[in-house]
Amino acid sequence: MDHVFLGIQFPAPRNYERIRVENVNFNDSSAELIEKFREITGLNKEDLTLTYLGNILEDNEPINRYNLRAGSTIQVLRKSTEDEPKNYKSFNELDVARICAMYRSLNSGNFHVSETT
């Protein structure tokens, strides 16, 4: 059995880490690899996606399908947890006029840069 590394971006202060996973059977599916990773980190399996060289590893496919080798680094992506789409305020003509007025006041020469030579 070989090993692979899983790279994941954790929130600060941990930041990016490469975690070594031992005893990897390359005939196993990525779902089994995620399960091993979950045991190591405690992260939820449903919140994770594995990628290797830009390819998303499918749950039911063996990982050797992606030409993984011992010592390869698989990137772990956490799925977005955004529940609701964000609602942005639409601009009307008055909003645009206010922004233009602010820009004109900034660009009108009120700010002078002194040049030192």
Please tag this protein with its features.
117 residues; 5 strands; alpha+beta
Distance between the termini: 68 Å
Helices, by number, come to 2
Helical coverage, percent range:
10-25%
Query: Which regions are unreliable across 5 or more consecutive residues at pLDDT < 50?
Result: none
Side by side, the strands of the main sheet go 2-1-5-3-4
Q: Compute the gyration radius: what is it?
A: 25 Å
Shape: elongated
β-strand percent reads 25-35%
Major sheet: 5 strands, mixed
Structural class: alpha+beta
Q: On the 0-100 scale, what is the average pLDDT?
A: 80
* Order of secondary-structure elements: EEHEEEH
Number of strands: 5
Question: What would you say this structure looks like, in words?
Answer:
This protein has helices at 30-41, 93-107; strands at 2-9, 16-24, 48-52, 55-56, 73-78. The protein has 117 residues and is of the alpha+beta class. Strands 2-1-5-3-4 form a five-stranded mixed sheet, covered by helices on one side. The chain has two helices and five strands. The model has no long low-confidence stretch (mean pLDDT 80).
